[in-house]
Amino acid sequence: MARVQPLSGFPEWTPQERLVEAHVIGTLREVFALHGFGEIETRVVEPVERLAGDSDASKEIYAIGRLNADPDADRKEAKLGLHFDLTVPFARYVEENQGRLQFPFRRYQIQKVWRGERPQEGRFREFYQADIDVVGRDTLPEHLEAEVAIVMARALRALPLPPARMHLNNRGLVEGFYRGVGIVDVAGALRSVDKLDKIGPDGVREELHGKGVNPEAVDAILELAAIQTPDGSFVDLVEALWDHSPIVEGADDAREQFDRGARSLAALVDAVNAAVPETAIADLRIARGLDYYTGAVYETVLEGHEDLGSICSGGRYDSLVAGGGFPGVGMSIGVSRLVSRMLGAGLATASRSVPQAVLVAVTDEEHRAASTAIADRLRTRGIPTEVSPNAAKFGKQIQYADRRGIPFVWFPAAGDGTSPDGEVKDIRSGEQTPADADAWVPPTEDLNPRIVRG
Amino acid sequence: MARVQPLSGFPEWTPQERLVEAHVIGTLREVFALHGFGEIETRVVEPVERLAGDSDASKEIYAIGRLNADPDADRKEAKLGLHFDLTVPFARYVEENQGRLQFPFRRYQIQKVWRGERPQEGRFREFYQADIDVVGRDTLPEHLEAEVAIVMARALRALPLPPARMHLNNRGLVEGFYRGVGIVDVAGALRSVDKLDKIGPDGVREELHGKGVNPEAVDAILELAAIQTPDGSFVDLVEALWDHSPIVEGADDAREQFDRGARSLAALVDAVNAAVPETAIADLRIARGLDYYTGAVYETVLEGHEDLGSICSGGRYDSLVAGGGFPGVGMSIGVSRLVSRMLGAGLATASRSVPQAVLVAVTDEEHRAASTAIADRLRTRGIPTEVSPNAAKFGKQIQYADRRGIPFVWFPAAGDGTSPDGEVKDIRSGEQTPADADAWVPPTEDLNPRIVRG
Questions:
Q1: Does B62 contact A66 at a Cβ distance shorter than 8 Å?
Q2: Residues on chain A touching B322 (C-beta within 8 angstroms)
Q3: Whole-angstrom Cα distance, residue B157 to residue B160?
Q4: Is this prediction's ipTM beyond 0.90?
């Protein structure tokens, strides 16, 4: 048997670290439910042909197969792979269950996903994602683009994180502008602009030239991408840009799409900032690679942790499923990447490594039942409690609690005390007082492990 | 693209069904933490050579591989498979992190596992398991065998299930007896007795004869397996059985092991029944196939659902890891099988399909902000709320709430009402009253979806 060792890209946490991850997931669930999103979970596998639809991600698919395959039986079954995001399985779930779901369907989903990437610094092969989407049947009101962003902004604020800034854009605005300056392959141009952070304006310029876009149009595109305002004031800037850009003949339709997108983006930025102040920025650079999006697009950057890239992204799409008819809007948080940074940068820690607030000491093995009875009376009132595994000297039992961060040790009565249930000691202060197991409560902040901001 | 369809063995739930599953998992987490068990999660993959250690389960391993494999890079990496239980990964986790963990280490773990079985009625290929274990370093006190069973019995009682009966046995008792009647291959005999339910006493008799066990010893073994008492009274029965069984020469050592096991099992049954009345039964038939176990062994049957087999099993083992030195005791619940039965047999349902208690109606799109403001004031006080996606006629908006089981619809003030925040209607009773969005609360039972016993 090979020595055990961590697998690159498959993170695991200690029990104390897991408390932070569980807190993050629990907080997201609470905020999502508070805003009327219901939960689903999907199986982790999908037919490979369905997963492979997206060409970029298909390189990263993990296929699965039974180790002792039975060729006859297995040939009849579809080849399966692990999902690499929660959108592909959600689309399949909606298609499969459309007759049983109520639309607009508001769902959240927090599950692990897998990507068979080459392992490298900070890249996970297994990680949690948390998605929310609202999907309509045939139509979906535009105001839900703001709602989804607001829910995510509130979820991020509820976590032990520095401020998050949402960079918002609108595909219609961008597409209208691109068409206005005569670009035919709008999707191709968007993919180039999406690389601004990686290859810089000169790199993008070169790519666009290579794609046959004329220099004046490229300049206009890069000017558009440079516009960023914390409110609706970008509208004047983009309108002025249109007016002095090399607009092609017969661009009325493009102009209309551009104006509609600008109004929509201004309303979105205002609505998000009204609900969660100082969160949203209109950022005309945001492109999001996927062809999929048709309205609002979102990226989110964590102050002081810009190197993480976008921690929460998404957008508005015309249809969730290939056949059409299910317009929606959604965003996705990369939970494991966030948790990994929280732990690595000391942004959050759990106040102890175990759930229990109390260790009930055992005087000697003959009297173990007395300690167990006290523990059960505490548990009945919701106080997480452990009974000492052994009847070692009390000093040793205190040490046992101390090593795990258990704040209180309860000493059952030896028969000679003033309290029939004995005494409880706060092992941090050393203070020891007689206590009643049906009444004593630890201070609220000691009841359960707390998540402490770093 | 193939039509979407369910995959046999990969269960998925509707949002309303998922509420039941989430309730089960949440309840288990609470009970485990209340008893001082901390949570870990492990990656879902392990090296195949590690998974394949157990010959029986190895047939069911799902291996994973990158779809677009890079033979050069991939050759250097261990072949990976999805875990088929939570014991193998837990053992590896303990071995890997032994320097960072405190022993005895009390952990719970609730994760999906995968088994590439031939799909058949009620067999899942993907399902949740919930495990608790206490693992010592070198030693582990016997009283933890009772503690683990008590925690699991309480967890099952906290769920919307009929009474569960734990059938307990002790490997030492059985092994001592088998050795006493001259059986050399104790593990082989145990594997045969483990099939009692499937092949009956005659089938077991035939198997044991085939393994060379003499007829008198087989009779004695089957007599032992027939003993079942709801308390420690089995001790007299097994002692009497020993006395009239064909005991071999020089069985003093075996007798000692037998007696020690009997005392231990009697103490276990008493302790479990003292903590959770009418739960434990000494059942000398319980064998548990695995060689692994050395002390207490547990199986659990749900009253009226005996066809499910054991829903919660486990035992005491000498070492969690191959190298030795980590004695422990643990039990595992088959969560998905339980949830599937709860849903299928109508044992539990969620009181509604969505988390929100209130739908705030929208008078017209111009006044949407007023509805959103009311919703946010309710959310601030923890009341899950949705704002109507459209400003349809109020009748339509009430229908929207009704279809989802949302009990309350809030109508913002039209400016002419007595209450500045408008009125709230219980759409079940039709009762409508003026309300203050900073003070109104729904009845406690309507705040969140309730799990209703069937």
A1: yes
A2: 1
A3: 8
A4: yes
Question: Shortest CB distance from B126 goes to which of A44, A95, A112?
Answer: A44
- Mutant choice from A24, A56, A67 vs B, greatest count of B C-beta within 10 A: A67
From first to last of its 454 residues, what are the pLDDT tens digits of chain B? 456 778 889 999 999 999 999 999 999 999 999 999 999 999 999 999 889 875 566 678 999 998 876 666 656 677 999 999 999 999 999 999 999 999 999 999 999 999 988 766 568 999 999 999 999 999 999 999 999 999 999 999 999 999 999 999 999 999 999 999 999 999 999 999 999 989 999 999 999 999 999 999 999 999 999 999 999 999 999 999 999 999 999 999 999 999 999 999 999 999 999 999 999 999 999 988 667 899 999 999 999 999 999 999 999 999 998 888 999 999 999 999 999 999 999 999 999 999 999 999 999 999 999 999 999 999 999 999 999 999 999 999 999 999 999 999 999 987 665 679 999 999 999 999 999 999 999 999 999 999 999 8
Compute the distance between CA of residue A176 and CA of residue A182 in angstroms, rounded to an integer. 10
For residues B37 and B328, what is the distance between their CA atoms, to the nearest angstrom? 14
B389 contacts chain A (CB < 8 A): yes
Angstrom distance (rounded) from CA A149 to CA A282 = 13
Provide, for chain A, the percentages of residues in helix, strand and coil under a 3-state DSSP scheme, each rounded to the nearest 5: 40, 20, 40
**CA B73 – CA B65 distance, rounded (Å):** 12
Q: How many Å apart are CA A242 and CA A219, to the nearest integer?
A: 12
Sheet of B62-66, strand order? A45-47, A80-82, A62-66, B62-66, B80-82, B45-47
Nearest-CB residue to A4 (from B39, B95, B107) = B95
The count of residues in chain A is: 454
Using a 10 angstrom Cβ sphere, with 0-12 exposed, 13-18 middle and 19 or more buried, the burial of residue A95 is middle
Nearest to B39 among A2, A22, A372 (CB): A22
Cα distance from A137 to chain B (closest Cα, Å)?
12
Length of chain B in residues, anyone?
Answer: 454
Beta-carbon-side half-sphere exposure of residue A239 (alpha carbons within 13 Å): 11
> What sign does the dihedral A226-A229-A235-A240 (CA atoms) show?
negative
First to last CA, chain A: 40
Residues 6+ apart with CB under 8 A from A23: A348, A350, A451
- DSSP state letters, A381-423: TT--EEE-SS---HHHHHHHHHHHT--EEEE---SSSSSTT-E
Query: Is the Cβ pair B355, A144 closer than 8 Å?
Result: no
CB-CB under 8 Å, A53 with B1: yes
Crossing angle of the two packed helices B335-344 and B15-34, in degrees rounded to 10: 130
Q: What 3 state SS string does A355-390 have? A: CCCEEECCCCHHHHHHHHHHHHHHHHCCCCEEECCC
Pairing of strands A280-283, A164-170: parallel
Q: Which residue of B has its CA nearest to A77?
A: B7
- For residues A229 and A365, what is the distance between their CA atoms, to the nearest angstrom? 70
Burial-class residue B206 by CB neighbours within 10 Å (0-12, 13-18, 19+).
Answer: middle
Residue partners of A200: CB distance under 8 A and separation at least 6: none
Beta-bridge partners for A425: A409, A432
- Flag whether residue B450 sits within 8 Å of chain A, measured between CB atoms: no
- The 3-state DSSP class for residue B16 equals helix
Contacts of B298 (CB under 8 A, 6+ apart): B149, B152, B166, B167, B168, B286, B312, B313, B314, B315, B331
Q: Is A422 left (phi over 0), alpha (psi -120 to 50) or beta?
A: left
Rounded Cα gap, residues B63 and A63, in angstroms: 8
* pTM (two decimals): 0.96
Question: Rounded to 5 degrees, what are φ and ψ at B23?
Answer: -65, -45
Q: Rounded distance, CA B121 to CA B103, Å?
A: 41
